[in-house]
Amino acid sequence: MIASLIGIVFDGLAYGMLLFLISVGLSVTLGLMNFVNLAHGAFGMLGGYLCALAMARWNVPFLVALPLAFVAAALAGLLLERLLFRRFYRRSHLDQVLLTIGLTFMAVAAATFLFGPQQQALRLPEYLSGQFSVLGADHNLYRMFLLAVGVVLTVALTLVVERTRFGAAVRAAVDNPRVAEALGIRVGLVFQIAFATGCGLAGLGGALGVEVLGLDPVFPLKYMVYFLLVVAVGGTSTLKGPLYAALLLGVADVAGKYYIPQVGAFIIYAMMVILLILRPQGLISRS
Amino acid sequence: MSAAARARTWAGRFPWEEGAFWLLLAVGFWLWPKHLALASQVLIAGLFALSYDLILGYAGILSLGHAAYFGLGAYAAGLLAAHGWGEPLSGLLAAGCCAGLAGFLTSFLVVRGQDLTRLMVTTAIGLLLFELANRLSNITGGVDGLSGVEMAPLLGAFRFDIYGRTAYGYCLIVTFVLFLGVRRMVHSPFGWSLRGMRDNPSRMLALGYPVQRRLIALYTVSAAIAGVAGALLAQTTQFVSIDVFSFNRSADVMVMLIVGGAGVLYGGLVGAAVFTLAYHFLSALNPVYWQFWLGAFLIAIVLFGRGGVLGACERLSRHLRERGRAPAAQR
Amino acid sequence: MMPALRTSGLGKHFGGVRAVTGVSLALARGARHAVIGPNGAGKTTLINLLTGMLAPSEGDVYLDEDRVTGLRPDQRVKRGLARTFQINNLFPDLTVMQSMLLAVCEQCGVAIDPWRPVSSCRDEIAAARAVLRLLHLDGAEDTVVRQLPYGDQRLVEIALALACKPRVLLLDEPAAGVPKAGSQALFRAIAGLPDEVTVLFVEHDMDIVFRFAQRITVLVSGAILTEGTPEDIARDPTVKQVYLGGR
Predict the structure, then answer these.
(1) Is residue A285 part of a domain?
(2) What CATH code is carried by the domain that includes residue C46?
(3) What CATH number is attached to the domain comprising B65?
(4) Which end of chain C has fewer CB atoms within 10 angstroms, the N or the C?
(5) pTM score, two decimals?
(6) What band does B285 get if pLDDT is binned at 50, 70 and 90?
(7) How far off is chain A from C69, nearest CA to CA, in Å?
(8) How far is C-alpha B168 from the geometric centre of its chain's CA atoms?
(9) What is the ipTM for the molecules in this complex?
(10) Would you report the helix, strand and coil content of chain A in percent, each value rounded to 5?
């Protein structure tokens, strides 16, 4: 009983970590530039398909395909930002939604055309499959790997944001872009780097998540509500907010599906309602 | 041009054009007798888009889950008919009330948030209902749809015939009546206040408006109208399946409204016509192609086509008027 | 006599920052009361606390001795408290008359009517015109707000607040951003405010302060430094020090 509880918690945390990695870019985009990017899941999808493709067609090892996914998604993000997104920072949220929904539709259609509508399979390397024993219980090795990667990346992100000058620039720009600009911080450049990183992380998350979240052409639409939830509940002014929201969401979803499978899928909706009622301004708000 | 001025223009300055528009639709029995079913679809989509215009175009509430209320209305009417109560008008009323109630209950979550929260909540509501309908497939018929929806003759006299004549007349009258009601509302003090709440909610608070309460009322009305549109679909096609709740339907109604022009009352109808007809004639194509080009089209509209079809017409008519004036000034 | 507006120990802190501390004011009916102080003294925070846009960390607000501390901004407006904004907070795409009608219709309780066309609300249109005439804005009735000169927009701010038939009016830096040329109209507007309306204004422009204020409160770092008649304040050496530097 306890063993399965621990297993569920670990699974949930790993799942939550994935959601956080993918959603953190969305949070930054919204917080820095007030840009609602509903196409964010498409970057995750890009990373996932690239990783699967690289491994299947070009025999690239998994651990090499992962950074490839990051780079590809980051580049795609950079390109889209320069060509398209930056014209929309001052436009209404409605226009941004229309743009990004349009992009999402195009991405979904392209993925269906290129890869077919079925679930994409990914063969995990031997050394990451299977179980291992800890605390007298069996845990899925891949989930542990996910958790470890997630922790490392989160710590790295936090260090960058809190200890480096770039991080300080990002925080200043989120807080008050006009004053930051006046202080000599090139907000546009800061944003480009932050945005590319966010997209890269989404791509990485998508690649890591093929095994856990699945990957098919409707991935960006299927998981959109999860990413929105993480950002809406976690807020856009801190890293901790989306992290806690994602972890909470992950654990609740996994636990719900395990313990009460008939209604498990509805747990996140119940959670969303409760969280919104209790904390309309987000989990971690600065006031 | 502001939404207020545009609305005045289209509904106030040219009343004869509006009359002509509806007359044209009425004459449709003779103009497109072989396509009445399609025309009914256009009207239903137009009514749905009108309800969506109320919350998006007039009140500025970003929603990607309005299909939830459309679907609830459809299933309310469909289930009533499938279980023996086939009287259309009462079914329509019941569906509207059902959807309106759902709108009221969910409005509390929707009106209090910012744009992102609203997007999330509305998307989630739509998904939730879709999932629910899927799970309860013994009641809803699941993906295969509800069977046994049989409608009694409308007003006891007009049977729903296979040519779709009764259906068309039914849809036309219901849409027209609701349209008139919405038109009245949009030009009332309440309707005006919506624009204030969309453009500057903090100012409205400072003027004494209980903004959230008014938006709750509006959202409820919009959900009820969406429910009526859904009921029309169920009653005229005598079929409902869970895709009435789908995200695609919510996204499609947003596209229709933007294509036609948001916040100008007729935008939803015009956009619904364009979208439905395009889909009908292009549906022979691979659905993947449709989705791809729909996405591209959406991006093109938001980049170049401000105000949709009606906005373009407005600009064109202004351009022609100025061209007409310039030679006179030179004389 | 019962004060029209009263606060007791009003305070607000954001984490470690104490924006407003222990502010206790009492304004008699019809008073003209100015709040002055250097930048960052907490003046706009005070207005936000009075109107209900911010919830206080401590203390209470009373309108005609009714405790309004827990009420939302729109509820306070219905009890007679109106405000203007320091930076124009108008409806840029509406005309002046349309903006005024929004205010008047809500005031008259007509704004929930979903059936009557606005064009037939003659009483409300007349009431809006009356307020506009008071501020000499009646010529600009059909001008889109965005196209008005800044000084006239400031007057529309005041007009909107007056349309709410307030008993207490809070003016947040009414002269902010108004060029010297437009200030005559502004002076006229403030002078023309009805006598029974209690006016609290936050201002930097000492011309306006000394011309219209009967009492002045000096706010520094969120707390009241001193309070008195304009003559008292003008003579007070601590006030001079606060404004000219040194502490």
Answers:
(1) no
(2) 3.40.50.300
(3) 1.10.3470
(4) N
(5) 0.90
(6) confident
(7) 20
(8) 17
(9) 0.88
(10) 75, 5, 20
